[in-house]
């Protein structure tokens, strides 16, 4: 028999406790145990004991407010999720709650057993996802410590032997540079992963909570709107995970160049058709094959991944109703791929870092993405012993040209 979920209600109004207790008791098939803290001080002591799986916290707590208690608890390292109970529904309250660390908020007098049950379950799952990210951060920190220890041992040996001083200094410099790069990579990874996962997860949580409020046929349009938001967020999460997995497999040497003979024109047409469902409103991809030869011998999967990444970027960084141009050409010893968009372009100051993992250009920080796509494309091209060049003008668009040798 599964253990009961321990819920702590923090509210200075006993009537609200009775109401909440009755709502929880009406949740079908769910086993919850509800405890009550009637003051700020009592709640603070109970939270320190970490005896509960989730906290329902009232916005108003006498001379204090729930956000103050929530902020203190999160700063002290409390892992269990908080759900804010408020007397009003507005965007300002929602934003304050999320900034303080709440994973959801419910408006008193409007939620039913189904709403409360769903909010508790989604908040617990969301908290688990954030805990996984923190665990990954800790593991990366440990790797840095291990590498630092290895570096310290290397320095000690060099001091004892004192041989080849110049070479030793160069090795130390390289090791320090690698250490610095690893630390920077870890910091960028944690920052991007936390943000990119939290944003779609919060959208899913918010939309899932709101869907339950639309119960009539007249609400079908609103309900479908939130269903589409959930689908879009899940698609974003899948893309992020695919990028992380691709980068990891490249780093571990698990991706190989395995050429095969296939029709470049037919494959490119299929990829363009596959991209249709991901384009913004009014966008279109215009494809042209510029040679009479259509077959070539290259790695089919890597070819597809390169095109999908470049076409996806072309759509992502272009506005609605913009055209993306794709051309392919098969010659005797090589094939050429060119993807041209009419999007935001790349600032001059950012071009030197364009293929750095996790790098985002200054004019792209508000656009969904991890900064891994172009780095992955570059690694794929190098794996296929090809070349990648580009031209870009700010506000006018970007053109990527790839040449791949054929066998």
UniProtKB/TrEMBL annotation:
Keywords: Coiled coil, Kinase, Phosphoprotein, Transferase, Two-component regulatory system. Residues 130-186 form a coiled coil. The keyword NAD does not apply. Transmembrane segments: none annotated. It catalyses: ATP + protein L-histidine = ADP + protein N-phospho-L-histidine. CDD domains: HisKA, REC. SUPFAM superfamilies: ATPase domain of HSP90 chaperone/DNA topoisomerase II/histidine kinase, CheY-like, Homodimeric domain of signal transducing histidine kinase. It is an enzyme of class 2 (transferase). Residues 6-123 form the Response regulatory domain. GO terms for molecular function: phosphorelay sensor kinase activity. InterPro entries: CheY-like_superfamily, HATPase_C_sf, HATPase_dom, His_kinase_dom, HisK_dim/P_dom, HisK_dim/P_sf, Sensor_HK_Regulatory, Sig_transdc_His_kin-like_C. Residues 192-407 form the Histidine kinase domain. It comes from the Bacteria. This is histidine kinase. It comes from Pontibacter arcticus.
């Amino acid at each position: 028999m599964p253990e009961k979920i321990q819920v702590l209600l923090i509210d200075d109004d006993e009537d609200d406790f009775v109401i909440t207790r009755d709502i929880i008791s009406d949740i079908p098939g769910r086993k919850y145990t509800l405890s009550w803290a009637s003051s700020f001080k009592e709640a603070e002591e109970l939270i320190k004991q970490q005896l509960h799986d989730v906290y329902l916290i009232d916005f108003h707590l006498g001379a204090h407010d729930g956000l103050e208690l929530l902020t203190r608890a999160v700063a002290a390292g409390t892992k269990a999720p908080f759900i804010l109970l408020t007397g009003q529904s507005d965007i300002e309250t929602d934003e304050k709650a999320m900034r303080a660390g709440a994973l959801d908020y419910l408006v008193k007098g409007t939620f039913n057993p189904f709403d409360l049950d769903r909010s508790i379950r989604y908040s617990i799952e969301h908290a688990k996802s954030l805990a996984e990210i923190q665990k990954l951060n800790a593991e990366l920190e440990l790797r840095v410590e291990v590498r630092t220890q290895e570096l310290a041992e290397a320095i000690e040996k060099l001091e004892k032997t004192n041989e080849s001083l110049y070479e030793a200094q160069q090795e130390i410099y390289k090791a320090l540079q690698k250490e610095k790069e690893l630390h920077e990579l870890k910091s960028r990874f944690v920052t991007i992963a936390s943000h990119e996962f939290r944003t779609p997860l919060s959208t899913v949580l918010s939309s899932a909570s709101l869907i339950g409020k639309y119960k009539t046929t007249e609400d079908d349009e609103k309900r479908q709107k939130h269903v589409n938001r959930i689908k879009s967020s899940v698609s974003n999460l899948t893309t992020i995970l695919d990028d992380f997995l691709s980068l990891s497999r490249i780093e571990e040497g698990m991706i190989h160049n395995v050429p095969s003979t296939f029709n470049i024109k037919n494959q490119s047409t299929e990829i363009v058709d596959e991209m249709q469902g991901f384009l913004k409103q009014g966008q279109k991809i215009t494809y042209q094959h510029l040679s009479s030869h259509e077959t070539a011998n290259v790695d089919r999967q890597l070819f597809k991944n390169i095109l999908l990444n470049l076409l996806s970027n072309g759509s992502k960084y272009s506005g609605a109703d913009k055209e993306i141009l794709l051309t392919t050409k098969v010659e005797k010893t090589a094939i050429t791929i060119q993807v041209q968009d009419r999007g935001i372009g790349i600032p001059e100051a950012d071009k030197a870092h364009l293929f750095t993992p996790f790098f985002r250009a200054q004019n792209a920080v508000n656009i969904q993405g991890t900064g891994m796509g172009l780095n992955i494309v570059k690694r794929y091209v190098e794996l296929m012993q090809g070349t990648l060049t580009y031209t870009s003008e700010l506000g006018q668009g970007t053109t990527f040209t790839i040449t791949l040798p054929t066998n």
